[in-house]
Design brief:
disordered C terminus, two-stranded antiparallel ribbon, single chain, extended, alpha+beta
């Protein structure tokens, strides 16, 4: 039995597919995403979740929003400098900052070249 056809995950694409993306958009997916390991394999496991929760308890507000005078709860512990698999940098809490999900998404898009941006090493 086949899985039902669904619209492609690419915004605005009406093509129906049984996978997340249609053939056209599957090919345009960045190589970074195609070769990326699972979150657990990148270190985001139970040990990380415990450290993350402790950090957010001590740092409950998004640092980017606070700079704009807004007190928005942080939900993400961001690596200021992307660790790219470097375990020492991954666990260096001086490289962490609390962000809300929208601020984290914007930062990641700037770093990874998402949303049509070129990649950069901008920090928030």
């Amino acid at each position: 039995m086949h899985t039902p056809l669904k619209p492609c995950n690419e915004p605005g694409c009406p093509t129906l597919t049984r996978e997340g993306y249609c053939e056209q958009h599957k090919r345009t997916k960045p190589a970074y995403d195609r070769s990326r390991e699972s979150a657990a394999r990148r270190g985001y496991n139970g040990k990380w979740r415990k450290a993350r929760q402790g950090y957010l308890t001590k740092h409950p507000f998004c640092v980017s929003c606070m700079k704009e005078g807004r007190r928005v709860p942080a939900t993400v512990v961001d690596h200021i400098t992307p660790h790219k698999g470097d375990k020492k940098l991954f666990w260096d809490s001086s490289n962490w900052q609390p962000l809300c999900a929208p601020c984290h998404s914007r930062k990641t898009a700037k770093e990874d070249g998402g949303f049509g941006n070129r990649t950069s090493n901008l920090r928030m």
